[in-house]
């Protein structure tokens, strides 16, 4: 049987000593803890002061903010790397042209939308990639379709499979027709003609060939009104030139047509000329000169001017009339007047002429036995003055004495205009009188005559 350990009994003095020792150790520990607490408090106050200087100082605040942002970024990248990968965006790319995938030489396609709106959904990086790609396009695949009308779905090419592309509209109704070829006579037009100086005239161009072949559906070919070679003269040619002309087809309303033209370009040789003519100027009073006056004479600072026009127009011009307002001529005076180009004239060497007018009293003179002529009769009829009608007229000439004294009978033109008579019969028609000298006025005493019309 084990022997029990005997407990040691302390005396009252021992207990007193032990209590003193414990009290001394407690005081030592309390002092040590207080010293540590004071030192830690000093360290925290020092750190807090430096943090305040960094955070609330304008010089260091931006640096601290950047460091915090960098720490935040790396923290988010490491802990939440999948958060942004799953975020998607949507953006409208705008309108794209629809391209038909079909043999353009064999088939004509109508009804296809020209443009469709494209909207793309996906990662921001993928959307940016699509926007930068040059090979992205919208297509209508018609390769498996035959002639007729079909509904076709629009698709895209060049976009990553990770993105979703939404098209508006997403499909279209197209008509496919087989093409045929037809020949057309070739005309021509000058483009940018206003860029050339108007004194130059362009001759009829010499084209490489007189006709072209047009390829389209039979219905489209039937709607072609004309085909022209478009000759661009924007280079302001001043001499003969050869240039490449573009060939285009048009309908009867002048709308350009989308067809295949063979060839679609050809050389054109054009002659450039500068036809002109020196022409005299004359004045023509319009209205009545006051106070029973008439123009006795006048002078111009330009007796003649150079007129530029096609030769056929120049051949018809002998004198350029300058119309002046007669009611303003109350005395001898000098004044400027514009020179108005007649139809077909492209340019005149002078645009304004200065006129000096001298007035005199108005006088009258009667000239008898002026022959009456019948003009502008229709084919298939004979026109003659009726029996008993005078064959001649008496003409009263009014103007300054120096002017009317110079008028000769051959300067007068008295006639009947029968251009509106288209049936046989007897007609009362007015006499018309004209004179070469425009400074005088002319009138016939018998204002009408009788015309007999018979069928041939």
TrEMBL record:
The name on file for this protein is YbbR domain-containing protein
The lineage's top-level taxon is: Bacteria
Extract the InterPro entries matched here: c-di-AMP_regulator, YbbR
């Amino acid at each position: 049987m084990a022997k029990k350990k005997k407990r040691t009994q302390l005396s009252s003095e021992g207990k007193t000593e032990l209590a003193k020792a414990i009290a001394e150790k407690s005081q030592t520990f309390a002092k040590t803890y207080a010293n540590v607490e004071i030192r830690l408090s000093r360290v925290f106050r020092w750190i807090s002061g430096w943090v305040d200087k960094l955070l609330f100082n304008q010089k260091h605040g931006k640096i601290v903010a950047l460091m915090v942002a960098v720490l935040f970024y790396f923290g988010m990248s490491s802990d939440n790397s999948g958060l942004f990968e799953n975020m998607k965006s949507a953006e409208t790319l705008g309108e794209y042209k629809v391209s038909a995938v079909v043999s353009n030489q064999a088939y004509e396609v109508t009804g296809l939308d020209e443009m469709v709106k494209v909207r793309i959904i996906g990662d921001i990086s993928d959307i940016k990639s699509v926007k930068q790609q040059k090979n992205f396009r919208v297509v209508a695949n018609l390769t498996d379709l035959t002639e007729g009308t079909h509904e076709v779905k629009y698709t895209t090419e060049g976009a990553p499979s990770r993105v979703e592309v939404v098209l508006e509209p997403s499909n279209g109704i197209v008509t496919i027709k087989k093409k045929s070829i037809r020949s057309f006579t070739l005309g021509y037009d000058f483009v940018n003609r206003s860029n050339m100086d108007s004194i130059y005239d362009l001759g009829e161009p010499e084209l490489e060939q007189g006709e072209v072949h047009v390829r389209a559906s039979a219905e489209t070919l039937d709607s072609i009104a004309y085909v022209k070679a478009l000759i661009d003269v924007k280079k302001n040619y001043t001499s003969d030139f050869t240039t490449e002309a573009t060939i285009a087809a048009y309908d009867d309303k002048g709308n350009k047509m989308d067809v295949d033209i063979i060839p679609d370009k050809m050389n054109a040789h054009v002659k450039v000329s500068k036809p002109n003519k020196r022409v005299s100027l004359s004045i023509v009073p319009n209205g009545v000169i006051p106070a029973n006056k008439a123009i006795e004479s006048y002078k111009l600072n330009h007796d003649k001017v150079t007129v530029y026009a096609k030769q056929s127009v120049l051949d018809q011009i002998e004198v350029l009339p300058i119309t002046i307002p007669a009611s303003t001529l109350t005395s001898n005076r000098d004044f400027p007047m514009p020179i108005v180009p007649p139809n077909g004239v492209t340019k005149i060497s002078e645009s304004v002429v200065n006129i000096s007018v001298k007035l005199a009293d108005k006088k009258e003179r009667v000239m008898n036995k002026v022959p009456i002529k019948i003009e502008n009769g229709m084919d298939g009829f004979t026109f003659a003055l009726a029996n008993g009608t005078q064959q001649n007229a008496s003409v009263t000439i009014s103007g300054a004495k120096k002017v009317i004294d110079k008028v000769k009978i051959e300067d007068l033109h008295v006639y009947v205009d029968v251009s509106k008579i288209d049936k046989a019969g007897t007609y009362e028609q007015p006499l018309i009188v004209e004179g070469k000298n425009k400074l005088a006025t002319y009138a016939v005493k018998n204002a009408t005559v009788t015309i007999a019309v018979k069928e041939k």
